[in-house]
Design goal:
- With 449 residues, the protein is α/β, with parallel strands linked by helices.
- It contains 15 helices and 17 strands.
- Strands 3-4-5-2-6-7-1-8 form an 8-stranded mixed beta sheet, with helices on both faces.
- A hairpin with a 5-residue loop joins strand 4 and strand 5.
- The longest helix has 15 residues, at 36-50.
- The termini are far apart.
- The structure holds adenosine-5'-triphosphate (ATP) and magnesium ion (MG).
- The site of magnesium ion has 3 residues, from helix 2.
């Protein structure tokens, strides 16, 4: 076999980081123009040449995107190195490596890959795929058996915020909120912005200006790669940098409240401490389905660990009498040691109050808000920025997807109530006294965080 020479440009530092990442799932990008598609193509070529017999799949959502963005360019780049077959849309290399180019327009299109095995799968613009499609593709990402060497199967994703797959990409790579058998060490995210792409900065300053002139919400997503914002987002003020903080040990004399939304499908319950200036810190979360009321109450008391709770805010429907027993849920909570306080259920007023609590003030490094969440409160941090406007009443939040509503409702009951700030102690009570996170690590382990 003769020598194959391909001229490739040099990767920029972020692209190099992407090339060198070895975890099972590697995501790259997060904003427009960071050199994602370039990096995907070059990495594929390097893999095909370096590993004899490797089976590669590059997938985009639609055929025109695939053709424009990749097929035509790869045909040029690989003209001396591989043979392209249009009927099967694949490049075969003399060393037995194969690069298949695919697309899946509809949800079910992904099933055509069922039963096939690819050592490496690239999903370009992963946020345009549904979670179902991602999962179906992960099932095809296994050893093809066509390689002589040992090679652990991997998936690479490129992505921008927004799109039908925004939530699952954000959960896995940005929020890093894992469930079941998912393991944190399997997921790597490498953020790159247009500013990391020297080619565009030099040759297309007008493109950079277009991004810089986008409307604020879209600009944050597409230029700065912020994942909290997208069109239709209700709590557009939510910003991870401002609202999510490292836990600290709550001073023992701060007032503490609990706010909850109860249903058999989900108990969402939050512990909130008030400082002496009236700022609120959500420091603990209980988010669990299928708890009958007595077990829910027991769990809440257990997790309070003897802390003095001023009030437990809950929605008024818990005071409705049940037909079977004649008792209300609030009564059963009370019998089990949790005396609930009825919060208002005026949705719109409650949401607007919550927006006031979340309002960001101050400039640059000084940006802050009156309500903050310890980073261990995973579900509220996930749901609050994800909940959308109701299409019929733009002052209200949508009630679908239902899963997003539990934790937001619980926080709304808090915002609809009147928590009181903590009293100022005689001695100095400033933040320098607060004990940082490490020292209370045990507590978080206890709650399975
Ligand atoms: N290392 C590099 N050397 C030279 N040119 C590069 C390099 N990386 C990217 N480019 C060029 O920069 C331009 C934009 O890159 P690319 O299309 O990969 O960005 P992208 O992040 O996929 O953009 P989009 O968000 O629009 O999909 C392309 O013309 C590409 O060839
Ligand atoms: Mg691209």
């Amino acid at each position: 076999m003769g020598e194959v020479r391909i001229r490739l440009d040099t990767p920029y530092p972020k692209q190099r980081e992407f090339f060198e990442a070895t975890s099972r799932f590697v995501a790259y990008g997060g904003a427009r123009g960071g050199g994602k598609s370039w990096a995907a193509r070059v990495k594929l070529i390097l893999l095909a040449l370096a590993h004899d017999g490797i089976q590669l799949l590059l997938i985009r959502r639609t055929l025109p995107q695939l053709r424009e963005n990749h097929i035509l360019i790869l045909q040029k780049q690989l003209k001396d190195a591989a043979v392209y077959r249009e009927s099967s849309k694949e490049f075969t290399f003399p060393n037995g490596s194969r690069l298949k180019l695919g697309y899946c327009d509809s949800e079910q299109d992904v099933l055509q890959y069922q039963g096939q095995a690819y050592d490496v799968i690239f999903m370009e613009e992963a946020t345009q795929f549904t979670e179902f499609q991602f999962q179906a593709l992960t099932e095809c990402n296994r050893s093809s058996g066509m390689m002589r060497e040992n090679f652990s199967p991997r998936m690479y994703l490129t992505c921008n915020p927004g799109g039908v797959g925004h939530s699952w990409v954000k959960r896995l790579f940005i929020d890093r909120n894992y469930k079941n058998s998912e393991r944190a060490e399997d997921y790597t995210f490498i953020k790159s912005l247009v500013y990391d792409n020297a080619f565009l900065m030099e040759h297309s300053p007008e493109y950079v200006r277009v991004l810089e002139n986008l409307p604020e919400a879209r600009k944050k997503a597409m230029l700065y790669g912020e994942w909290e914002l997208f069109e239709g987002q209700y709590f557009s003020e939510f910003s991870r940098d401002v609202h999510v903080i490292e836990p600290f040990v709550i001073p023992s004399d701060w007032r503490r409240y609990v706010s909850l939304d109860y249903g058999l499908d989900m108990l969402a319950c939050y512990w909130i401490a008030m400082d002496t200036s009236g700022n609120a810190y959500v420091y603990r979360e209980l988010y669990e389905p299928s708890l009958i009321i007595s077990r829910a109450a027991k769990k809440i008391l257990e997790m309070s660990g003897g802390e003095e709770i001023e009030q437990y805010f809950a929605p008024p429907d818990l005071w409705n009498r049940r037909q079977d027993t004649g008792k209300s849920a609030a009564e059963i909570f009370c019998e089990n040691g949790v005396l609930l306080t009825k919060a208002s259920n005026d949705r719109v007023a409650g949401w607007l109050n919550l927006k006031e609590w979340l309002k960001v003030y101050g400039e640059n490094e000084e940006k802050t808000s009156r309500l903050k969440f310890f980073r261990n409160c995973l579900n509220i941090i996930r749901c609050l920025p994800a909940i959308r406007f109701d299409e019929k009443n733009p002052n209200d939040c949508a009630v679908t997807p239902h899963e997003l509503t539990h934790s937001c409702d619980a926080m709304r009951y808090f915002a609809s109530s009147r928590p009181i700030k903590s009293d100022i102690k005689a001695q100095n009570d400033d933040f320098a006294d607060l004990i940082p996170w490490e020292e209370q690590e045990n507590e978080l382990i206890m709650y399975g965080v």
